[in-house]
Amino acid sequence: MKKTATSVGGRLAALLITLTALAGCGQKGPLTLPKPVSAAATAPASAPAR
Q: Of 30, 8, 12, 10, which Cα lies nearest the Cα of 20?
């Protein structure tokens, strides 16, 4: 099979897109969830009962 410029270029484009997608995730360390905020820290202080 003769390799044409289109088939070589298409494979090269697919390779570059795949490598860009893999490198572009941005997260370099382990995936972690944010620590939950406790309810006591976010709830406003209520007025004392009389």
A: 12
Distance in angstroms (rounded) separating the CA atoms of residues 37 and 7:
54
DSSP symbols for 1-50: -PPPHHHHHHHHHHHHHHHHHHHTT---S---PPPPPPHHHHSPPPPPP-
| pLDDT at residue 6 tops 60 | yes
Burial profile 3-41: b = 16 or more Cβ within 10 angstroms, e = fewer: eeeeeeeeeeeeeeeeeeeeeeeeeeeeeeeeeeeeeee
The residue written with tokens 């202080």 in the block is: 45
- pTM to 2 decimal places: 0.42
